[in-house]
């Protein structure tokens, strides 16, 4: 048996070799319909996309050579499309090689090949999942994957206000943008101050909102407390009101001329007005307070759900053993909560890391910092926004985006490694 | 006796803490409601319960000649509804396929979705802006709908797949033996069983575009195309304080229906989120 397969391995090799020209291998395997299909597909692919591939690949390499004929950004877009088309083409080509090889192998082993009818059924059965996926995948490619590829490419160009089509060409500059961000004084100083505030913001704001959420949930879980339902509903309100509305309302409340915080609350206890919007320090404090208000109800709701599922027996046993309330909280309640909502807690951190709304709507990232390209409360994502839409530093913004994405993806990967369903799928 | 005293102290402290929290939560709400009834345009010299309360600001918002507010409301509801329908359809198809079929590229596909859901889609802000300008899709609702739908797909497909995985496969198989085709099994047998998760996903896909500010701000340019988030921001940003009472009325009119909707559906939302958190 073993001997036989080695001596008669010729079919599979010959079919594989012949199908370097798509269709020939199938012809050799006497699967005429399939051969014709592959051949026609290849020819029409070449005819239809020859120009696009030619132009696109040239464009993405050079980004245009002559003005006003060439528009660098259009060329880049075309280039990405050309690459995507090429990838699809190569996939079909690989499929053709694979098919010829598999059927050649079947002949080597003396097996019967599928008839046309069987092949048709086969195509319908294997094709159905792809058919179901196609609308979603198509959309994803264009609105999610395409922009990501575009950002990655932009990070290696000099696209900005002064190198902006159609008046000027854009050029590849390698990793110059990254070097600039870490080496040029004005960029480095801004980058470091924005990054450090982003990290402080993420940790302080998120931790406070989690702590308040857990504290209130535990407080409201006491058996002998009355009106729990009403209290809970009211405490969830900040989550129910759309965040952009609340943040804008807070921007009004913290306003230095007419806001209620300075005029009503602080004045009532005799504290002088605080410059919430014009002092970097107080603006940061205000932001953290606002985010605590916005974020705690979500944690509160989650933890309430967990607490209601902890069996009473555990507490009763602890009481019999003479545990104090604090001990019960530390050894039973807190571990249960953290275990149950750990993944959600981590998404809270990544959410605040990218919490553009609260930063931008409260004070637009301000107050401005002298000698820097970002405001003093700008986090990375809001800095990217102002680099893109205000100072038109597209390439620099793209480079910062890549730094940001690397951070977010590493944290998220670390998190998902530990969750259950991905283990079940054994993907990672 | 000592036990009883302890209990009273504990409960009193708890009530004090709870009432402080309730106060902090409610104060901004009362303040904005009070502001919206305040006569005049600015807030200087106002009190939280206005003396000559007026409905003028609400009337102004409903007057199509004086404000675009109703248009913004309509735009937002339109965008949210279309996004919801599109994404629920695509997510149901994809989640089912990933759950039931074994095909070449399945694992890579799931892995790609996993990575994509980690990057918020506004991270590609620059690309979205530049591409929208170049393709002429800037300042259109179509661009927003496509972006929102695309952004919702990766995470919610995982969510849907997780739910489909819990529906027994024997159902598919017995239907297949009875001669049902691929699509019929999906449409008539599995889909009705997946209603709970589809409802959660529908809720997510409605709320996400509603709450979004950044993409709408990047894409939309002309005032009559704004969504509520961008419109309300502009009411404030244009001349802060000068139109604050009108803004307050606008804010109240958004907050009330949305919070009512939210509070009534809250249970489903939490169930979806916990499923998403622990299962993927």
Q: Outline of chain A, from the CA principal axes?
A: flat
Task: Give me the CATH fold name of the largest domain in chain A.
Answer: MetI-like fold
- The CATH class designation of the largest domain in chain A is Mainly Alpha
Question: Helical stretch count of chain B?
Answer: 12
Alpha carbon gyration radius of chain B: 24 Å
Specify the CATH homologous superfamily of the largest domain in chain B. MetI-like
Please trace the helix and strand order of chain A, writing H or E for each element.
Answer: HHHHHHHHHHHHHHHHHH
**Which value, in Å, is the CA radius of gyration of chain A?**
31 Å
Reported CATH architecture of the largest domain in chain A: Orthogonal Bundle
User: Which two chains share the most extensive interface?
Assistant: A-B, 97 and 95 residues
CATH architecture of the largest domain in chain B: Orthogonal Bundle
Kindly report how far apart the N and C termini of chain B lie: 51 Å
**Global mean pLDDT of chain A:** 85
Into which percentage range does the β-strand content of chain B fall?
A: under 5%
Q: Stretches of chain A where pLDDT falls below 50 for ≥5 residues? A: 1-7
């Amino acid at each position: 048996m073993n001997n036989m397969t080695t001596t008669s391995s010729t079919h599979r090799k010959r079919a594989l070799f012949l199908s370097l020209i798509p269709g020939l291998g199938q012809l050799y395997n006497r699967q005429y319909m399939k051969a014709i299909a592959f051949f026609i597909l290849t020819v029409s692919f070449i005819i239809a996309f020859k120009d696009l591939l030619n132009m696109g690949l040239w464009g993405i390499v050079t980004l245009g050579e002559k003005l006003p004929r060439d528009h660098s950004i259009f060329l880049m877009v075309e280039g990405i499309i050309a690459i995507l088309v090429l990838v699809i083409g190569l996939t079909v080509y690989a499929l053709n090689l694979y098919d010829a090889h598999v059927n050649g192998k079947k002949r080597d082993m003396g097996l019967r090949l599928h008839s046309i009818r069987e092949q048709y059924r086969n195509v319908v059965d294997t094709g159905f999942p792809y058919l179901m996926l196609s609308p979603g995948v198509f959309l994803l490619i264009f609105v999610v994957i395409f922009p990501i590829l575009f950002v990655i490419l932009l990070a290696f160009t000099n696209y900005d206000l002064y190198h902006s089509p159609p008046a000027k060409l854009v050029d590849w500059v390698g990793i110059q943008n990254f070097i600039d961000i870490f080496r040029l004084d004005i960029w480095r100083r801004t980058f470091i101050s924005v990054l450090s505030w982003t990290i402080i913001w993420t940790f302080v704001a998120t931790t406070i909102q989690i702590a308040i959420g857990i504290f209130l949930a535990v407080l409201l879980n006491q058996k002998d407390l009355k009106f729990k339902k009403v209290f809970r509903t009211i405490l969830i309100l900040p989550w129910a009101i759309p965040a952009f509305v609340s943040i804008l309302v807070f921007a009004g409340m913290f306003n230095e001329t007419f806001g209620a915080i300075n005029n009503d609350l602080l004045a009532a206890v005799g504290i002088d007005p605080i410059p919430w919007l014009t002092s970097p320090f107080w603006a940061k404090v205000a932001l953290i307070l606002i985010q605590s208000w916005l974020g705690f109800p979500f944690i509160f709701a989650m933890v309430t759900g967990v607490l209601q599922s902890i069996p009473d027996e555990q507490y009763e046993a602890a009481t019999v053993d003479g545990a104090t309330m604090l001990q019960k909280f530390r050894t039973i309640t807190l571990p249960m909560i953290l275990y149950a909502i750990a993944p959600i807690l981590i998404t809270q951190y990544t959410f605040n890391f990218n919490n553009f709304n609260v930063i931008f709507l409260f004070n637009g990232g301000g107050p401005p910092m002298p000698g820097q390209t970002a405001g003093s409360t700008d986090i990375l994502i809001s800095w990217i926004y102002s680099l893109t839409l205000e100072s038109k530093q597209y390439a620099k913004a793209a480079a910062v985006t890549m730094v940001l994405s690397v951070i977010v993806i590493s944290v998220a990967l670390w998190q998902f490694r530990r969750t259950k369903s991905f283990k079940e799928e054994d993907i990672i | 006796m000592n036990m009883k005293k302890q209990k009273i102290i504990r409960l009193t402290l708890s009530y004090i803490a709870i009432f402080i929290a309730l106060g902090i939560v409610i104060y901004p709400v009362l303040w904005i409601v009070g502001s919206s009834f305040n006569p005049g345009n600015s807030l200087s010299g106002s009190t939280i319960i206005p003396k000559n309360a007026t409905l003028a600001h609400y009337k102004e918002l409903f007057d199509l000649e004086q404000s675009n507010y109703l248009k913004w409301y309509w735009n937002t509801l339109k965008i949210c509804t279309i996004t919801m329908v599109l994404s629920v359809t695509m997510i149901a198809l994809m989640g089912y396929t990933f759950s039931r079929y074994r095909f070449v590229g399945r694992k890579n596909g799931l892995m790609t979705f996993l990575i994509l859901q980690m990057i918020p889609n506004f991270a590609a802000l620059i690309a979205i802006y530049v591409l929208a300008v170049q393709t002429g899709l800037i300042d259109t609702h179509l661009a927003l709908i496509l972006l929102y739908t695309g952004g919702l797909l990766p995470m919610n497909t995982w969510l849907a797949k997780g739910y489909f995985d819990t529906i027994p496969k024997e159902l598919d198989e017995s239907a297949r033996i009875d001669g049902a085709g691929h699509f019929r099994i999906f449409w008539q047998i599995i889909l009705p069983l997946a209603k709970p998760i589809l409802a959660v996903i529908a809720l997510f896909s409605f709320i996400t575009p509603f709450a979004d500010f950044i993409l709408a701000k990047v894409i939309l340019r002309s005032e009559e195309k704004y969504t509520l988030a961008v419109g309300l921001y502009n009411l404030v940003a244009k001349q802060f304080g000068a139109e604050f009472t009108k803004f307050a009325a606008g804010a109240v009119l958004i907050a009330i229906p949305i919070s009512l909707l939210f509070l009534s559906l809250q249970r489903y939302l939490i169930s979806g989120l916990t499923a998403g958190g622990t299962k993927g």
